[in-house]
Design goal:
This protein has 238 residues and is an alpha+beta fold. The chain is built from six helices and 15 strands. Bound molecules: cytidine-5'-monophosphate. The site of cytidine-5'-monophosphate has 13 residues, from β9, α2, β12 and β15.
Amino acid sequence: MEKRDELYAGKAKSVYTTDDADRLVMVFRDDTSAFDGKKKEALARKGAVNNQFNAAIMEKLKAAGIPCHFEKMLSPTESLVKKLDMIPVECVVRNVAAGSICRRLGVEEGLELNPPTFEFFLKNDDLGDPMVNDFHIRSFGWATDEQVAEMKALTFKVNDVLKQLFLDGGMLLVDYKLEFGVFNGEVLLGDEFSPDGCRLWDKDSREKLDKDRFRQGLGGVVEAYEEVGRRLGMTFEY
Ligand code: C5P
């Protein structure tokens, strides 16, 4: 497998084509951004930590029967993935209220959501990723009824697997964002799962161990990500 041209550069990852038209290389960079790119910083080691964290989580999800684009790690900061036709929405599950739902609905951070709630957001930086519903997704042709149902079912299945995994490491999975795409007609989990795209709190102290440390200027961002990995038995190479 040969890495070729940069296909695009996102805010934290770059994607390269390969000599296989159905495979891409994802490169995890140290760049970190929040508030639609208004706050930006490079955090040493973050690319390597997130790549290796994502690989370990994707392997767990695959083992639980969730179809993923992830194939294998290529280096401390690079992974090989299947090339998907991305569905342009973000799927968010929330077990505990935090972040935008507190601002939008006036609920207090930390409120347990039982049952967990689900939201779709349109991936569009210029519009600030507005919340959309199933009807928007169908009316604008972003996905079919079956794909909408599949994204929801897979996002909740991920919750079943990861809520327990993090709990075993003494952490609460507060919320997370997933993205899906289509490969040979099948909906697969794409993008990444790392502390950049979820909220994780220490179960007892409720200390934040995720990207809220960056958003809120709490410091120790990558150290917290490494601590999460350590609690799950991961070791990182740099
Ligand atoms: O900001 P909000 O509370 O809606 O985010 C919900 C979850 O989705 C958080 O874990 C956040 O890190 C993640 N998210 C993300 N990328 C976005 C928006 C939200 O990873 N563009």
